[in-house]
Amino acid sequence: MNFPELNPTAPLRVPAPAKINLFLHIVGRRPDGYHLLQTAFRMLDWGDEIILRRRDDGAIVRVGEVPGVPAEADLVVRAARALQAASGSTFGAEIAVEKRIPMGGGLGGGSSDAATVLMALNRLWACGLSREALQALGLKLGADVPFFVFGQTAFAEGVGENLVPLAVPPAWYVVVAPKVSVPTVEIFSDPELTRDSEPIKMRAFATITTRNDMQATVCKRYPQVAEALEWLSRYGAARMSGSGACIFAPFDSKEAAEQVVSQRPQGWKVWVAAGLDRHPLADWVV
Asked: pLDDT tens digits, the chain, 286 residues: what are they?
């Protein structure tokens, strides 16, 4: 596939969409302690934006501060350096993140940012790495990164890296972000967490009752999440995304979703986003 040339001296602004987990079952645990999951990932037409500028000196520079995240630990910096190492590129990059996705919200913000950096720099630097190669790099950064590189709604297994395309109906989602950040490691280490759900077949996903196995544990530890879940459940089939804290519910129309948002309690962060079937950068990688 041939792509039009990018201007290497101009800033490149690219999207990093949020994701939701339509369900999340924990079906076991590997000997190394990683949990085995089954989930359905879907992107939203809302998220962060990444601004990239190619450098010719090989330096990777994060522009701007991210509260609580040193540059060396930032997934966007780590993703750029991983791509440099894998491709042998001598180019560098300036990377700025316009952050909208809440941290510790279960919407995949850091993972999406990293995936967007991998896909965009792969093209900006003319590395030519395949989608599979970028997914393998992404898995070393975080379990959700391969999904964003995969670039479409997916049924996922393993630690989240075994991905199969999944067709789901169009939907608008109301998303609630409680004023709390939930550390994923804390929830996965909870002794009361359900870890033995019966595996399901992908073809049965739309016809059986599913859940988020992490939801009860998070709600017990974080009453703000339980409160948001109780409120949104008045209007639709509300569920927590990932390891929390964000809650979402699907609706058939934008108007129906916006009507729910208009009823939000004062001071709450609640918004509407449509399901996104393909990543905006999906065609940048083969």
From this structure: 445 567 877 899 999 999 999 999 999 988 887 899 999 999 999 999 999 999 999 999 999 988 888 999 999 999 999 999 999 999 999 999 999 999 999 999 999 999 999 999 999 999 999 999 999 999 999 999 999 999 999 999 998 889 999 999 999 999 999 999 999 999 999 999 989 999 999 988 888 999 999 999 999 999 999 999 999 999 999 999 999 999 999 999 999 999 999 999 999 999 999 999 999 999 999 9
List the catalytic residues: 19, 144
Q: Are strands 60-63 and 92-98 parallel, antiparallel or unpaired?
A: parallel
Three-class SS of residue 69?
strand
Whether the model pTM is above 0.90? yes
DSSP per residue, 77-117: HHHHHHHHHHHT---EEEEEEE--SPTTSSS-HHHHHHHHH
